[in-house]
């Protein structure tokens, strides 16, 4: 189906509504799949897309028994639609940030690498932000590093807290906490009742050990290469479960296992020589959409974690 070309014109509210329908159809993979999301019938969606094609002057998609596919023009319009609505969102965020009283969400995502002491410090951060900016709705959540990086780059997250072994262009990194990570085992492991001198280097090399679930660099990488890595766990609390099974050795910060060390259910192995530094960083976008909100979070976190 071909339509005559039309002269360029400004988009109307009706055009924007039709583009919203088109975006939903593309992202759900067809008319039928988009019904529930849009709350309208398949036949109504078809009418909306036909109207949009008529107004645009070309076919946006092929639909039929062979399935739903975008034309070349449809792909271009879809990507332009994403940019259009993203620009509208950016404009709304900018307008909102210019008011005397900040409102809306302040989003902080962590990678769950927080022991009890750091959790208490973060409680101080939240207290400070809430007391000074009560109009903000704070979202504090745990996500994977990949999710945090994506959220920061997309402008959906104001700051992230995670171990930054690898740097991403466009993001800024500020170390806020450093501690050593030690090799340890539980009292159910054969090494527990041996002295460090009784455990040879070859014993360590043969022992099943947990990989931290992330490609670390420097001394940490050099330490890991000495071991038989047969399990994987990124989160410290999940790694602790593997260690407590008595089947694996694993690297843990002392703050996460202090209770077990005190009770005698875990021990460190060669702590003076088998260790590496673990650093948590405050990560944020170099060119944020909402600079004021980002600055509020950075200031509060620096005051509690860095200045004290």
Describe this structure in words.
GO terms for molecular function: DNA-binding transcription factor activity; transcription cis-regulatory region binding. This is LysR family transcriptional regulator. Belongs to the LysR transcriptional regulatory family. InterPro entries: LysR_HTH_N, LysR_subst-bd, WH-like_DNA-bd_sf, WH_DNA-bd_sf. The chain is an alpha/beta fold and about 300 residues long. It has two domains: about 15-95, Arc Repressor Mutant, subunit A, CATH 1.10.10; about 105-308, D-Maltodextrin-Binding Protein, domain 2, CATH 3.40.190.290. The chain has eleven helices and eleven strands. Strands 3, 4, 5, 6, 9, 10 and 11 form a seven-stranded mixed beta sheet that branches. Strands 1-2 form a two-stranded antiparallel ribbon. Strands 7-8 form a two-stranded parallel sheet. Strand 7, helix 8 (about 220-225) and strand 8 (about 230) form a beta-alpha-beta unit. Helix 1 packs across helix 3 (about 40-55). The longest helix is centred in the first third of the chain and has 26 residues, at about 70-95. The chain is elongated, with a radius of gyration of 27 Å. The mean pLDDT is about 90.
CATH topology of the largest domain: D-Maltodextrin-Binding Protein, domain 2
Q: Can you tell me the residue ranges where pLDDT is under 50 for at least 5 consecutive residues? A: none
What oligomeric state do the depicted chains represent? single chain
In whole angstroms, how far apart are the ends?
68 Å
Radius of gyration, taken over Cα atoms and rounded to an integer in Å: 27 Å
Enumerate how many helices there are, as a single number: 11
Q: Please estimate the helix content.
A: 40-55%
Indicate the CATH architecture of the largest domain: 3-Layer(aba) Sandwich
